Amino acid sequence: MEYSFIGLSHGLPKVNDNMYWKVLVSAPYMQSVIDEFRPFFKENNIEIIIPAVKERLEEADLLNLIEDIDGVICGDDRFTAKVFHKAKKLKVLAKWGTGVDSIDKVEAQKLGISVFNTPNAFTDPVADSVLAYILSFSRKVPWSTVAMRQGEWRKKPCISLKECVLGVIGVGNIGTAVIKRALSFGMKILGNDVKKIRPFGVEMVSKLNLLKKSDYISINCDLNPTSFHLIGEKEFALMKPTACIINTARGPIIEEKSLISALRQKKIAGAGLDVFEDEPLSKNSPLRKMDNCLLAPHNANSSPAAWAYVHQNTLNNLLKGLKSGRKA
Q1: Which terminus of the chain is less hemmed in, N or C, by CB atoms within 10 Å?
Q2: Quick check: is 250 catalytic?
């Protein structure tokens, strides 16, 4: 990977190391609007380093950049123990967004490096996206549009959401928002969560029963060691052949090879995917060619208002962590 660097050092006092901080900005969403926030960095004596990032920085990329960095505004970069041990000056990771599954939080805590995120940042746009997938499958809008453009006049069989059961795996902030939207359409809701909760309008069931009974299954749990490949060959075998699965959480929660096999063999009817095991999704992925698969490039968080809030909160978190310093 090639690196391009953009700094504010020309306007910063560099009398000694305590006078300014060096910050790596690797979050693509922040990079795209960096000019808007240059006054903030200059006012707070922060020199910014901006590497070229396609989707995220891997461990090897970070090892080449991190040694003299005080803070990072990161995306889904791979902050491993090896990276942290080379980051002798690192005080804070300010994650742009919510998910921190790509960060070794245990090692960061051992070394006194603060890790901040913005909880509940994208609940509404992600929940909207889940319903968009469900409605697309139930009302066949994408397929009807393609057929009409090809000159066909053929009425495709559809179904009302009131006739359907939605299973939500992970009834946290986003899962709850999905449920509220689905209830307004009259759907019956089944829920499954590691915590013992009883949300309004939801029948909490085992994962097995949820998979067997649901017409639509929405993945809304965190990615962690217990949810890695939570849905695989055995789980797809339990689902209805008419069921659709929707993942707007994290790609590795679904075992992608098993999903491709289930779609090919018509063990399930469809999949709506915003996230993938490896991102960006390979141009050669079979998923790109499947008519029963709706795809998006990890874009369910798209919302100007949500992004603006996360930009500001991330900067606040960065400054707080820089001023607090390393705790070890």
Answers
A1: C
A2: yes
Q: Annotated catalytic residue: which of 47, 250, 255, 256?
A: 250
Whether the predicted pLDDT of 3 surpasses 80: no
Single out the catalytic residue among 107, 229, 279, 326: 279
Same domain, 195 and 256: yes
Nearest to 124 by CA among 303, 249, 275, 295: 303
List pLDDT tens digits, range 237-256: 999 999 999 999 999 999 99
- φ, ψ of residue 160 in degrees (nearest 5): -80, 145
To the query of whether residue 298 is one of the catalytic residues in this protein, the response is yes
Residues 247 and 313 in one domain: no
For residue 308, give both structure tokens: 């603006």
Q: What is the mean pLDDT of residues 43-60?
A: 97
Examine residue 300 and state whether it is found in any structural domain, yes or no.
Answer: no
Phi, psi of 186 (to 5 degrees): 85, 15
Nearest CA-CA partner of 97 in 121, 114, 127: 121
203-204/188-192 β-pairing: parallel
**Which tokens is 81 given?**
């123990």
- Do 193 and 279 sit in the same domain of this protein? yes
279 in active site: yes
Distance (Å, rounded) from C-alpha 262 to C-alpha 310?
37
Give the active site residue among 235, 255, 298, 311: 298
User: Do residues 154 and 256 both lie within one domain?
Assistant: yes
